[in-house]
Amino acid sequence: MGIPQKSTKTKTRRRLRDLDQIKEDLRSPKHLQQHKATKAAEDLPGLGQFYCVECAKWFETEKSLVAHRKGSTHKRQVKALKAEPYTQKEAEAAIGLTTDNGPRHAARDMEVEMENPEGTAT
User: Fold this and answer.
1) Which of 85, 87, 97, 120 has a beta carbon 3.0–4.6 Å from 92's, enabling a disulfide?
2) Count of CB atoms situated within 10 Å of the CB of 1
3) pTM
4) Rounded Cα–Cα distance for residues 73 and 57 (Å)
5) CB 73 within 8 A of CB 55
6) Taking the CA of residue 8 as centre, how many other CA atoms within 13 Å lie in the half-sphere pointing to its CB?
């Protein structure tokens, strides 16, 4: 018999921090220290000495950390961190929760003009 819900356990085991959490780590050293304080050093690779802030990953040796920083996954993560995060207003607009009613009024005015052309007499 296998491990119950194995796929769920493996997905949560490899779960990393979100981009907004990493950005907060970069902005505020206090936020990063709070995150590091929640992890026991003896449970971390390399006893928690080698940490890539941009990717939120721990490494065994300094050599593996340097090799990681030269790699494409690290560079991709740094590029993603440079982009501005979406605001709540942008997220609501993406799903259609906007209150922009401007163009609808213009369309209604056009219909009225088409019904009553100015050149005709009644």
Assistant:
1) 97
2) 3
3) 0.56
4) 12
5) yes
6) 3
**Which residues touch 81 (CB under 8 Å, ≥6 apart)?**
19, 22, 23, 26, 54
Instruction: State both tokens at 85.
Output: 């995060």
Phi, psi of 10 (to 5 degrees): -70, -35
CA–CA separation, 16 vs 23, rounded Å? 13
Tokens of 17: 């921090």
DSSP class of residue 87?
P
DSSP one-letter code for 57: E
Run of H or E residues at 50: strand 50-52
| Residue at token pair 């206090």 | 30
Distance of CA 55 to the CA centre of its chain: 13
Amino acid at residue number 78:
V
DSSP for residue 119: T
In the chain, the amino acid numbered 22 is I
Start-to-end Cα distance in the chain: 87
Note the pLDDT tens digit of each residue in 42-90.
Answer: 777 877 788 888 988 888 899 999 999 999 999 999 999 888 877 888 8
